[in-house]
Design a protein that fits this description.
By secondary structure, this protein is α/β, with parallel strands linked by helices. It is built from 14 helices and ten strands. Helix 3 crosses helix 13 and helix 8 crosses helix 11. Bound molecules: adenosine-5'-diphosphate and magnesium ion (MG).
């Protein structure tokens, strides 16, 4: 069907409503192609209230994303009016996630204040365990540090083999006790300030105790291998305190180095995470930001259908009052919405249908 050319210079008017009511209202919105003026959407009317979940489907290239751009005030070729509240938090996610080159915390916080625990919880809620380990709170947890330390304990014992393996059980205990106290007192000095502030007295104590016992076990294992016995009466060839300091430094420096290597920012994230994982990360951002209006333009397109739907269910449950405006090809997602609009590629009309919406049992 031939499209009429635009010979009028009118535009879509974007009103900012001061009433404080959360809504999106489109009145007779007609959108035209910026380049050739052909009509993309013809006279669309809709009024979405707090808690409405609207999904727009339609052929690709038909104007679904352009309609979102019009709501955001980025394009205005056409006619009619769009009204959104003046003071409103809007989060808009698109199919292609563009991660800024900042830290994981900054990506998710977007300038707001969130504790490590809140960020950790959001990543846990969207099942992004892979990223949870990059948060300072997790990097300073005993399990994480001790797992990294194990490798350096084994290496340290090999490195100081001639000094350690000749000591007897009492000497081993003495050495291990010295290591414990050195690590407890100096743990923070080996880590950057940003991580060091997260160590509590309790974790420091636990880490040093666990490294002490891991050290003893490893010596026993290695001496069994070397001598078939754990008893040997030979003495240290170096003062135990000095040896313990050397070994402790070696372990802590190794752990600090491993943690530094693991630090990631947005540019690394874009390379290390699949498209689906980046989209999953954006759902953690939604849970933290709790926007009044959430616009998702094919923002689960790189995820499998089950995961995409589970994430939708998660945010609908967490943010019952948020207005959601979705564009999706996955028909599986329609049932997460209470209003369905279908853009007809020929007539350019959007037919709107009310749906029961998602019933959540919890
Ligand atoms: N920035 C732009 N400038 C000119 N035309 C554009 C621009 N963005 C999209 N278009 C065109 O507008 C039409 C609708 O695009 P879009 O809304 O992105 O489709 P979809 O329904 O797949 O989201 C397409 O023909 C597209 O080529
Ligand atoms: Mg699009």
């Amino acid at each position: 069907m031939p499209q009429e050319k635009s010979n009028i210079s009118d535009s879509v008017i974007l009103h900012k409503d001061k009433s404080g009511r959360i809504h999106i209202t489109l009145e007779n919105v007609t959108l035209r192609q910026p380049q050739d003026g052909t009509t993309l959407v013809d006279s669309f009317n809709i009024a979405l209230q707090k808690g409405d979940h609207f999904i727009l489907t339609g052929p690709s290239g038909s104007g679904k994303s352009q309609l979102i751009r019009a709501i955001r005030g980025l394009i205005d070729q056409g006619s009619g009016s769009i009204t959104i509240p003046e003071e409103v938090s809007i989060l808009c996610l698109s199919q292609k996630v563009d991660l800024p080159r900042t830290s994981l915390k900054d990506i998710l916080s977007d300038g707001k204040e969130f504790s490590e625990e809140e960020i950790d919880q959001a990543l846990q809620d969207v099942k992004h365990d892979k990223l949870r380990q990059h948060l300072p709170i997790n990097q300073t947890r005993s399990d994480h540090i001790c797992a990294l330390a194990e490798k350096y304990i084994a290496r340290a014992i090999q490195h100081w083999e001639n000094k350690i393996l000749v000591c007897g059980q009492n000497d081993t205990n003495l050495l291990a006790t010295e290591i414990k106290s050195y690590i407890q007192n100096n743990l923070q000095n080996f880590f950057p300030e940003t991580l060091a502030v997260h160590f509590t007295e309790k974790t420091k104590k636990e880490i040093s105790t666990r490294i002490e016992s891991a050290f003893k076990n490893e010596i026993v294992n290695q001496r069994k291998l070397a001598y078939g016995t754990t008893s040997n009466s030979s003495r240290f060839s170096t003062a135990p305190q000095k040896l313990a300091t050397q070994i402790s430094k070696y372990i802590l420096q190794g752990v600090a180095m491993d943690l530094e290597d693991a630090q990631i920012d947005g540019s690394t994230l874009s390379r290390q995470l699949s498209g689906g994982e980046q989209q999953r990360l954006m759902f953690a951002k939604i849970l933290l930001q709790k926007p009044d209006i959430l616009i998702m333009d094919e923002s689960t397109s790189a995820l499998d259908r089950t995961s995409g739907k589970a994430l939708y269910e998660q945010i609908i449950k967490a943010l019952p009052d948020t207005i959601i405006w979705s564009v999706a090809h996955d028909t599986n997602l329609i049932e997460c919405h209470n209003i369905h609009g279908d853009l007809d590629g020929d007539s350019k009309k959007i037919s709107v249908q009310k749906l029961p919406g998602l019933t959540l049992f919890s």
